[in-house]
Amino acid sequence: MNQLRFISVFAYVSVAVSLISCGGQHQEKNATDTTIIVDSTVVVKTDPGTTSPIVTTPQQMMVVRHKVANFSKWLPSYEEHDSMRQANQLHSYVIGRGMQDSNVVVVAVKVDDMEKAKAFSKDAGLKKAMQKGGVTGTPLFAFVTMTYQDTVSIASDVRSWTTFTVKDWDAWQKAFTEGQQERLDNGLAVRAYGHDADNDKKIVLVVAVTDSAKANAYWKSDMLKQRRMASGVTDEPQRFIFRVVKRYK
Questions:
Q1: In angstroms, rounded to a whole number, what is the distance separating the alpha carbons of residues 170 and 168?
Q2: Of the residues 111, 143, 175, which one is the last residue of a structural domain?
Q3: Is residue 54 part of a domain?
Q4: DSSP state of 210
Q5: pLDDT digit string (tens) for 58-114?
Q6: Distance from the CA of 96 to the CA of which of 133, 141, 192, 201 falls in 20 to 30 A?
Q7: What's 29's DSSP letter?
Q8: Which domain holds residue 82?
Q9: 3-state DSSP call for residue 146?
């Protein structure tokens, strides 16, 4: 008989997230300036009899971040234009909202053809659709190749999207993998990582926050600073904290 394993972590702290500014282009605070809160019960479920939840087949994605005048009005407008995305081989995947400013929206879509995705990001039709939906300021586009995804069910919807640069992709990935238990012990569960579609030295990392107090302390710790140095990180990581509010199949 299949067995079910449950791992529960309870977190309750207060929040103050320093994220991104509005206007021309959103700017993120340094990792050391980021403080978050989560009030959630984290439940991870796996079934040994099913296919592994770990996906290592590279997945191309386009991620857009922008501010909207009103999220409840923007979302229907976004979904009304799904045919436009489908025509450009883009598939809705995840929508998130900033923890500090809930009208800052992050949209992740899966990409079949990266060149079409890049062209679509500059299309006048997309700009018009965004304006109709109430997008303000200049959208920030990222084109990434996710090389690792953990699709196991987890109750915490709070995510950290972090970007940074490394000296060498392979060396960083090896060192990062070795730090898995350390991250889990400090309230962070890796959901996905990869790199810029055109530069494997520009890393993209998505983690679920399962314990805010531990995560905030870890992000500011010498322990993490030393691990970054050892893995070849060359700049200060930039972090954006958001909550997943909708997932698409």
A1: 6
A2: 143
A3: no
A4: S
A5: 999 999 999 999 999 999 999 999 999 999 999 999 999 999 999 999 999 999 999
A6: 201
A7: P
A8: 59-143
A9: strand
